[in-house]
Amino acid sequence: MTAKLDKNGIILPLAIGAIVVIAFVVLLYRDSVFKIAEKLPEIKTAEELTQVLSDLDGQDPSEMNTDVNGVVTDASGL
Amino acid sequence: MKKTAIFFATLGIFLLASPVLAEDTVAIRSPKPRLEQAKARVCEAKKGSITKRVDQLLARSEKMVKNFTDIAQRVMDYYTNKVLPDKTVSNYEELVAAITDKKAVVDAALDDAKSKASTFSCDSESPKAQLTEYRLAMQKVISALKEYRTAVRNLIVAVKSEK
Q: Of A78, B43, B55, B159, whose Cβ has the fewest other Cβ atoms within 10 Å?
């Protein structure tokens, strides 16, 4: 089917050319591309701000105390 | 001839008195007591799980720092883009400075804990003492994290009250 359409043998070189061009553009602007991917979700409303506060309150560093003490307890036989 | 004999005698005394040789001699004459050998075996057996737990705790702390930093940044962006055109938080700069200060304290405490964790070795005189030091360092990290979270929280509450 492709062979019938590509009588002049032009599709393959065009496809390869397109891939090369896309790869070159991504390489050139990779910093911007990755920055978009890493961009933090924006807070738009007061409700979202409340949600962020709730998320923050949900992350308690004190919860690590048990695990920290557990490391020493685990080493009691040393 | 006499001089050569004196030279070799002096060299012999020096070599015998050298700490390197002395150490070997002691090691050969008095092997580790059985209790110490048993402890070393227990330590080697537990080393893997201990190191894994230590690394996991450090990674968890780092993740928490990143979460708090991201939240602080998002709130600052919100303040700049959504609040600032209409209203201002009077002590905004102070709140942001407090966040920066607390973050620096967390980073320093985390570096210290990492350093303590990296020195853990079953060959040391007291591996348990090393882990106790690590625990103390991690307790400082936790304490610093709590203060950092409070600083971020203070900013959110201040911004929230203005909007």
A: B55
Cβ of B78 and A42 within 8 Å? yes
Reading the block at residue A72, the tokens are 């020493």
Counting the structural domains of chain A, the total is 1
Give the residue from chain B lying closest to A43, CA to CA: B78
Q: Which two tokens stand for residue A53?
A: 């506060």
What token pair was written down for B103?
A: 């973050």
- Residue B100 sits at the vertex; the CA angle it makes with B98 and B102, to the nearest 5 degrees, is 65
The token duo for B161 is 């009250």
Domain that holds residue A20: 2-57
Beta strands in A32-71 (DSSP E): none
Rounded to two decimals, the ipTM of the complex is: 0.71
Two tokens, residue B66 = 């990143």
pLDDT digits (tens, 9 = 90+) for B94-142: 999 999 999 999 999 999 999 999 998 888 888 888 999 999 999 999 9
* Residue of A52, A69, A27 lying closest to B82 (CA atoms): A52
Q: Least CB-CB distance to B54: which of A65, A71, A77?
A: A71
Pairs across A and B, CB distance < 8 A = 106
Q: What kind and span of H or E run contains B43? A: helix B34-78
Predicted TM-score of the model (pTM) = 0.71
Residue A67 domain flag? no
